[in-house]
Amino acid sequence: xxxxxxRLLLFGATxxxxxxxxxxxxxxxxxxxxxxxxxxxxxxxxxxxxDSEYRNFARAALEKYLPADRRGRMAExxxxxxxxxxxxxxxxxxxxxxxxxxxxxRGLAIFLSTAxxxxxxxxxxxxxxxxxxxxxxxxxxxxxxxxxxxSREINxxxxxxxxxxxxxxxxxxxGKETVQNLLALRFANLMFxxxxxxxxxxxxxxxxxxxxxxEGRVAxxxxxGAIRDMVQNHxxxxxxxxxxxxxxxxxxxxxxxxKVKVLRALRPVASNETVTGQYRxxxxxxxxxxxYDEELGKPSDTETFVAIKAHVDNWRWxxxxxxxRTGKRMPRRVTEIVIQFRCVPHSIFAGPKSKGGGAxxxxxxxxIGIQPEENxxxxxxxxxxGLDREGIRLRAVPLNIAMPDAFSGAVRRIAYERLLLDLVExxxxxxVRRDEVEAQWEWIDAIRAGWxxxxxxxxxxxxxxxxxxxxxxxxxxxxxxxxx
Length: 484
Known about the structure:
The chain is of the alpha/beta class.
């Protein structure tokens, strides 16, 4: 049943995500008139606060994390906010929480941003207070488990109170404009889709590089590592969007049906198709940074870098490798997708040595930048100006589409703005379905089991580099160079 909620309940309302993303996103939506006038936002967490104290807390977060040009008038937004302290592990406080929520006229949307260990108790508490009815939808923030088994436990607990059509699993990468633009690029332009297959594409690269280290996420990250923190969710979602078949419609069912087909077609990864690493002390941007073991304060076998050679075994992609790479303490922060096309089958510009040996050909390359810059670059071969007395010379020239320039009047939004608005309005298209999550975990668990069976431990790499040299070799033995 479709409805636009007039109540939004935020669990973890005093946490880092709420301060950095959720409150700024909701404020920006309100400032642009995109939230219904009667939408009430109720925050809950362990901290004891009154409504007015929480509003002061929210104001401080907005002043800290929102750009000055997007702050606008805060009084109207603050009037939407209320707060109810709650210990989510006990049932006692849920009736008071239900009283604070009140009786929605249209429906309630719940955003659960807590530790996964609290998901089960929270669902039971919501059930006991009558907050799981047919006009209630549930949004889950990652991590959704640490493997397939724990993911199923979480999904089973949530499914005990909410049917799948009322469960919204967030992957905030799907809220990024350029990620959504990947679908427009593929399916709204005739020139690309006929070439989007093994006959014309040599390989695909997906890189998610971070310059930061642990940054206050010590306990979580050392348990998760790069493959569970980044590959299992963000990177596999990007891979699925690149590789999916054209959906019949742009709606939640059609899009997610095609994504899950890709995830189920992923070939098990061989032992020589992965490389893991862990950073040591180095320098980034001219500043010295400590090694992972120094930040952690003890030795660890947790990987902060992983590179994987993946394959999608279906007709469209048979034989096309997908190189995935993610790591912390990389030289620069970048998330990008590289589509490397094959060379032309025959060069008419090849010539005798007396004419300079002919023009050098390079295959076309499409680079889709997701962050920090949102852009699309297509490299094309062009003739170098001149009289060509020693033969035609060719050079790759970039055709650049910088999204902020192409749409200069558009507001640059936080990914959570789109996702929160979709949650309130009930659109699941950019949220992850249970079968997607489980297909992702099944593939990741097999990789980690292979590491354990082989006794594979992370190789060291210097902070500020692109990871262990073995990651370079992983691609170069196929004649591929990482795009940097």
